[in-house]
Design brief:
Layout: E1 4-10, H1 17-28, E2 34-41, H2 48-51, E3 56-59, H3 71-77, H4 79-85, H5 88-121, E4 125-128, H6 136-144, E5 148-153, H7 161-167, E6 173-176, H8 179-186, E7 194-197, H9 204-207, H10 214-220, E8 228-232, H11 241-254, E9 259-263, H12 269-284, E10 291-295, H13 300-306, E11 309-311, H14 322-330, E12 334-337, H15 342-345, E13 353-355, H16 360-372, H17 374-391, H18 394-409
Parallel strand pairs: 1-2, 1-4, 2-3, 4-5, 5-6, 6-7, 8-9, 8-11, 9-10, 11-12, 12-13
Helix pairs in contact: 1-18, 5-6, 10-13, 11-16, 14-17
This protein binds uridine-5'-diphosphate.
């Protein structure tokens, strides 16, 4: 039998966690069984799929990010708008006006751009690489072309009544990257399609020794024996870099030689504003020489190998937290926020430490505890590696997804 064509659609504007996870899935997919093609947003310059010999099409998509308020937004945020919203009839008109504007600008043009590509490739199944609320256009394009579609929910985003009542029942299946995402996305859904929780995977070989962290320390001028804590993630308020900075300042009171690195870039206007506030705060705390801002980096395995501790301190529940399985694969002890998908990955005291979200003193204590306890670090390192090999390897992940395709297609 010839390979079954599957079309993957990911319209994130940047090559973030969703696209990286998709590339891992496709790298493990049995190409004698499945023939993939990928559609990405035109702004997304990720080149990994072409390197795997997978055809890629780009469609123009509206930016999902927040931009500085234009004239229309300023009116929408002004006093007149607030008084309209507090009047029941006007508030209804306001709401529907906003919905229509969203559809006209963000949804329908993308449906029109996707439709000819779907018709041309003629897939047996469309795999939509994010939650329904972020994929409305692609769900509608699948329906318009009468093609079976599943969503791979990767985000904790609110679903509207329209999403739950109209879009979800038309899907053939839903994959969730964590139990947390499954619970969130299925809330209020009366008739869910086939569902399955399949956690993300990591390319373990990329993170295993002999990856060298010493060269990163040399590049950054960090002494080989200085305690080094790091955080990897987009610069955006909910990722909690402010909590990291405050906790690091406390850590230095007890461990004056400690150093920190912040890895990741601000991809949105909101993120840039937040980054500027963080820089200001780190100057106020006297951290200029000890907290290094590295921006976006590609050498994540080397950076993890250089760190003594990887900190994850999102202040809102994380849908999954790829960086945690990357840290564990690298044998870098992790501290994670006790919320959302992170709690399904990290077991307190076994594969990492958990601290309550936004709790600066608790995070500072956890960092000190790990720095001062080599035996604990070694235990977390070994357990982390074992758990990643058992649960988060690419071949098992790709096999689980392929198994789900067969179930959906009745093969
Ligand atoms: N990442 C990267 N370079 C950076 C920052 C992040 O390659 O400078 C990668 C990181 O290694 C991880 C992904 O981006 O694979 C982020 O995934 P995660 O689930 O942690 O967060 P998301 O961005 O999806 O919310």
């Amino acid at each position: 039998m010839s390979p079954i064509p599957i079309l993957y659609i990911d319209l994130a504007p940047h090559p973030g966690g969703s696209v990286i996870s998709l590339s891992h899935l496709l790298s493990g997919l049995d190409r004698t069984q499945w023939r993939p093609m990928v559609i990405l947003s035109r702004q997304n310059d990720f080149a990994g799929f072409e390197k795997m010999g997978i055809p890629v099409a780009h469609v123009p998509t509206p930016q999902r990010e927040k931009r500085p308020a234009g004239v229309v937004e300023q009116v929408r945020q002004g006093k007149a708008a607030a008084s309209i919203r507090s009047t029941p009839v006007l508030s209804h008109i306001w709401h529907w006006g906003g919905a229509l504007r969203h559809w006209r600008r963000n949804v329908l043009p993308v449906v029109r751009a996707l439709t000819p590509i779907i018709r041309d490739f003629n897939p047996t199944l469309i795999h939509l690489n994010d939650s329904v609320a972020l994929m409305q256009h692609a769900v509608l394009a699948a329906r318009r072309t009468r093609t079976l579609a599943i969503v791979h929910s990767r985000a904790l985003v609110p679903t509207s009544a329209f999403d739950r009542r109209i879009l979800v029942p038309g899907l053939s299946g839903m994959i969730f990257i964590s139990q947390a995402v499954a619970q969130d996305q299925l809330r209020g859904v009366a008739r869910p399609p086939l569902t399955r929780v399949i956690p993300n995977a990591v390319d373990i070989a990329q993170f295993e020794q002999p990856v060298d962290g010493a060269s990163v320390r040399r590049e950054l001028g960090i002494a080989p024996n200085a305690p080094l804590v790091g955080m990897i993630g987009r610069i955006i308020p909910w990722k909690g870099q402010h909590v990291f900075i405050e906790a690091f300042a406390r850590l230095r009171q007890r461990h004056p030689r400690a150093m920190a690195i912040l890895v990741g870039s601000a991809d949105t206007a909101q993120g840039e504003e937040y980054g500027a506030r963080l820089q200001q705060r780190s100057r106020e705390l006297g951290l200029t020489d000890n907290l290094l801002w590295l921006g976006h980096r590609r050498d994540i395995p080397q950076l993890l190998a250089a760190m003594d501790i990887l900190v994850h301190c999102s202040v809102e529940p994380e849908p999954f937290g790829r960086v945690l399985i990357e840290g564990m694969a690298a044998g870098t002890p992790v501290i994670a926020s006790a919320a959302g998908g992170a709690m399904e990955i990290v077991e307190e005291g076994v594969t990492g430490l958990l601290t309550p979200p936004a709790d600066v003193p608790a995070l500072a204590r956890a960092m000190s505890r790990l720095i001062e306890n080599e035996a604990l670090r070694e235990r977390l390192r070994q357990n982390g590696r074992r758990v990643v090999r058992d649960r988060y390897d690419i071949p098992s992940h790709a096999a689980a997804v392929a198994d789900f395709y067969r179930m959906v297609l009745g093969l």
